[in-house]
Amino acid sequence: MDGKHVDWDKAQIHLLTHAFHYGTAVFEGIRCYKTDRGPAVFRLQDHMRRLHNSAHIMGMEVPYSQEVLEQAVVDTIRLNEVDECYIRPIVYLGYGKLGLNPVGCDINVGIAVFRWGSYLGEDGVKNGVRTKVSSFSRGNVNAILDSAKTSGNYVNSVLAKREAVLDGYDEAIMLSQEGFIAEATGENLFIARGKKISTAPGALVLEGYTRDTVMTMARDEGYQVREEIFTRDQLYVADEAWLTGTAAEVTPIREVDRRAIGTGKPGPMTQKFQKMYQEVVRGKSEKYSRWLTYLS
Predict the structure, then answer these.
(1) Are 222 and 193 contacting, i.e. CB atoms less than 8 angstroms apart?
(2) DSSP state of 234
(3) Is the CB of residue 200 less than 8 Å from the CB of residue 227?
(4) How far is CA 134 from the centre of its chain?
(5) Dihedral sign of CA atoms 218, 263, 186, 145 in order
(6) What are the residue numbers of the active site?
(7) Which helix (H) or strand (E) holds 235?
(8) How far is CA 209 from CA 69, 214, 223, in A?
(9) For residues 151 and 108, what is the distance between their CA atoms, to the nearest angstrom?
(10) Would you put residue 168 in left (φ > 0), alpha (ψ -120 to 50) or beta?
(11) Which residues contact 163 (CB under 8 A, 6 or more apart)?
């Protein structure tokens, strides 16, 4: 926290921290994986670049350079002596000034590392998840600035996730203001028909790095990948659909609104990308080794 390592149970903030009241924080989700060469952080530079970009969009000046934060991640993992972990860097407006005017607020930075398994569950990764189209839609881009990974924006996702879980589903799918498929509450979404793969345009979603990884691998494998708008009925009749995200990795969708997707089981394309992704993040693909930062 702010350049010093702090014991887990002492990593605390004041009750009147600005971000606690108004959601004025930007953050990232990153993973470190166990490889044959020791722990390696996946796409660390990209995530830290986006953290700085999110802060810039929010008018916040991060008090540490990207390089300093990257090294802080590595140091914190080493100190905790873990070979696999989830990493949560956060930049937030701190204690000292309350009210909606953020000008003059102190800016604080923290990095936590901890063990976290499959976000949507091991069964979801293996057999696919059940989803529903949410009654909550994504906000207008000029209202919430979707390109910034801002804490306050995720209230929208929390409402949709809660609704889905209470209705007996694993995850919610969000529509844009215009009614097109955008993304899930914390993941990007892909559909496939034949050799064609579609995902929502970057202007409608947070452009995730797992999303980018799968798009890159798919194009390298000869698939046609398009960023384009598509509708919920096009999702219903897709051959396959899957979610991507740092926490969820590559998770198949087996059902949407009580309609089976394809055969109702993870399809061959989804399984292919799951396998490729695990090989990449665990250092078994020399072709994509540029995405790994080894602690050693």
Answers:
(1) no
(2) H
(3) yes
(4) 19
(5) positive
(6) 149
(7) helix 232-236
(8) 18, 9, 19
(9) 14
(10) left
(11) 134, 135, 136, 172
